Amino acid sequence: MTQITNLNRFRKQKAREDARQQADANAAKHGRTKTQKLAEKADKDRAAKQLDGVKRDD
Predict the structure, then answer these.
(1) 42, exposed or middle or buried, with CB in 10 Å at 0-12, 13-18, 19+?
(2) Is the dihedral angle over the CA atoms 35, 40, 46, 49 positive or is it negative?
(3) Neighbouring C-beta atoms of residue 43, cutoff 10 Å
(4) d(CA 33, CA 24)
(5) Rounded distance between C-alpha atoms, residue 42 and residue 58, angstroms
(6) Which of 2, 15, 18, 39 is the least buried, fewest Cβ under 10 Å from its Cβ?
(7) Mean pLDDT score across all residues of the chain
């Protein structure tokens, strides 16, 4: 006797795999790594600190 297969399950699984591949491609194309984000935050903090240091009070 053959085993019954649920075609909806396979269709949904294929859709999830396609969406995952598309998300990975978008992340590689548009995303930034964690080290890039941390470096950008450090640069922003350093610039703000330097600006506060040279600010004159009237």
Answers:
(1) exposed
(2) negative
(3) 10
(4) 13
(5) 29
(6) 2
(7) 91
Give CA–CA dist 5/26, Å, rounded.
33
Residue type, 31: G
pLDDT in tens, 20-45: 999 999 988 888 888 998 999 999 99
In degrees, to the nearest 5, what angle opens at C-alpha 13 toward C-alphas 25 and 20? 15
Q: Where are the alpha helices (DSSP H) in the chain?
A: 7-30, 34-54
The torsion angles phi and psi of 46, rounded to 5 degrees, stand at -65, -40
Task: Give the angle subtended at the CA of 48 by the CAs of 47 and 51, to the nearest 5°.
Answer: 85
Taking alpha carbons only, the member of 57, 56, 37, 33 closest to residue 45 is 37
